[in-house]
Design a protein that fits this description.
With 254 residues, the chain is α+β, with helices and mostly antiparallel strands. It contains 8 helices and 7 strands. The chain has helices at 13-32, 90-102, 115-121, 132-137, 156-163, 183-206, 214-223, 235-246; strands at 41-45, 53-55, 71-73, 108-111, 142-144, 168-171, 175-180. The protein has a 7-stranded mixed sheet with strand order 3-2-1-4-7-6-5, sandwiched between helices. Helix 5 links the parallel strand 5 (142-144) and strand 6 (168-171). The chain is globular. Bound molecules: zinc ion. Zinc ion (ZN) is lined by residues 111, 113, 174-175.
């Protein structure tokens, strides 16, 4: 993040940085209205500690999350920092755990229940090429039929099979799972997907949308890279949102 942050000596430098980035991300989601009471999760892998992840404390609203209240867990959702008084929603970690386990490149995983993304997940045909942001994702989304709340391990094989080589899984009738190589990468993909879904919802509520043709989608996806800063997926956008969060309050940093 842009500002050098004071380190809590209890944690390694890498863990403290990861904690602050993730706490900031939860605050961004709360600010954007992408929170779901005490539910949903954004998880990250701790790159300096094999098999360790960070997750939000169960019962805490996204707007209350701080760097030190995040819980360090193992791949099965067992708490690793015992002095943290909060609990983990182990059931909620089941699908995150599956993807973190089998996909080495899934550093950060975001799952939400926002109205716009859930609505599109519940629509026949899912995301349609009706707007600029939706065109970013055409051919890049995977879909998985609803089988009830995603807590049964035997559903795992089908989730992985349906995901294939994609890194965004639209859980039908449920919500999206967005994975990124870094937290800012997952964030920027999630932001664009959220926007794509919001706009589809608005467009379809007015009447028959104009569908963008495949040739234009190809050109659009080919040329998108021109707006990107190489190797920094989502970083400038994430940092700008952190500054906006800081203008609300800076308690996430502790
Ligand atoms: Zn869910």
């Amino acid at each position: 993040m842009a500002t050098q942050l004071k380190r809590n000596s209890k944690y390694s430098e890498a863990e403290w940085t990861a904690r602050q980035e993730l706490a900031a991300c939860y605050r961004i989601f709360a600010m954007m209205g992408w929170d779901e009471m005490i539910f949903n999760h954004i998880t990250v892998k701790l790159e300096d500690q094999e098999g360790a992840f960070l997750i939000n404390p169960y019962g805490m609203h996204f707007s209350e999350v701080t760097a030190s209240s995040l819980i360090k867990i193992d791949i099965d959702g067992n708490k690793l920092d015992e002095d943290n008084p909060w609990h983990v929603n182990k059931a909620g970690f089941v699908q995150h755990s599956l993807f973190h386990r089998v996909l080495p490149d899934a550093h950060a995983i975001i799952h939400t229940h926002t109205t716009a993304t859930m609505a599109v997940c519940g629509l026949e045909g899912g995301l349609q090429p009706t707007n600029f942001y939706a065109c970013n994702f055409m051919g890049q989304l995977a879909y998985h039929d609803f089988e009830g709340v995603t807590v049964r391990e035997e559903e795992g094989a089908r989730l992985i099979e349906h995901l294939g080589d994609k890194r965004i899984l639209m859980l039908r009738n449920h919500g999206p799972v967005v994975m990124g190589k870094s937290l800012s990468d997952a964030f920027i993909k999630y932001w664009a997907l959220q926007r794509a879904c919001e706009i589809q919802l608005a467009t379809m509520s007015m009447g028959k949308p104009i569908l963008v043709g495949e040739d234009v989608i190809k050109v659009h996806q080919r040329d998108l890279y021109m707006a990107a800063i190489p190797g920094q997926s989502g970083k400038a956008e994430f940092d700008a949102m952190v500054r906006k969060v800081d203008r609300i309050d800076t308690s996430w940093r502790d």
